[in-house]
Every structure is written in C-alpha cells, then in structure tokens.
C-alpha cells in the first residue's frame, strides 16, 4: 500500500494480476460500471520496469500509476482510481483515501488479497506466495 515514483506517463494505468481469476473478474465488473481513460492491463502484459515496479509487487497488489509517475498499491490504488473517475465515485475515493476509514480499507484489502483464491472466481493460481 505504499507509493513510489517512476517516470511520467501520458495516461494513467490500472495494473492487475491477469493470472488471478478473482482479480480479472473484478476488473471486468469494474469496467461495466466505470468509464475512465486509464489503461487497464494485467502486469503480465506490461514492461513493469517502465513503471519502476517489480513482478513481486504487481503480483501482490493492484497498482495505480498516475500521470506524474506515482505508483500506488492496494486500497490506495483503488482510491486514486475512483478519485480520477470522479462523479458518483468521489465519495468512495474519499473513504478509501482519508482517515479514519483509510486504515479500515487497507486492512479489508489485505484480507481479500490474502484470500482471493477463496473468493468468487478465484482459483489456486490466485493464491499469493507466502
């Protein structure tokens, strides 16, 4: 859930684990509800070095790469994504990004991430490395 900085990108990116059925299904559902010009791509299909991100990190959490190169992970990545979308999703962004609910969102994200292989659409390939 930390932030780091890579080079500037002209378009923001939402990066997910394409090998995880739960993650892929979540992104698919998100695409039905949200319209945003971000590039949505699996980390397996990208040159992660471009963003200064390791495969280990990309496998561990969803990532948001903003146009200024800031890389956010986990619940903060979702919060920054929803903030960029704006409109009716702005309240959700505020809940994910600001106290006192930010720490709750982070813990909930971690709980789901650790158990994504047990979630609907999840398979054994969704399990995070120990």
UniProtKB/TrEMBL annotation:
Organism of this sequence: Actinopolyspora mzabensis
Pfam families reported in the protein's UniProt record: DCC1-like
Protein name as catalogued: Predicted thiol-disulfide oxidoreductase YuxK, DCC family
Molecular function GO terms recorded: protein-disulfide reductase activity
């Amino acid at each position: 859930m930390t932030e780091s900085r890579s080079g500037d990108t002209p378009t923001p990116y939402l990066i997910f684990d394409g090998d995880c059925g739960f993650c892929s299904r979540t992104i698919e559902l998100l695409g039905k509800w949200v319209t945003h010009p971000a590039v949505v791509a699996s980390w397996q299909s990208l040159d992660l070095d471009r963003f200064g991100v390791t495969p280990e990190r990309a496998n561990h959490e969803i990532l948001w790469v903003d146009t200024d190169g800031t890389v956010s992970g986990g619940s903060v990545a979702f919060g920054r994504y929803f903030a960029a979308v704006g409109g009716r999703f702005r309240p959700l962004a505020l809940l994910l990004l600001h106290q006192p609910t930010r720490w709750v969102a982070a813990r909930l994200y971690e709980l789901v991430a650790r158990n994504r292989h047990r979630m609907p659409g999840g398979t054994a390939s969704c399990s995070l490395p120990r």
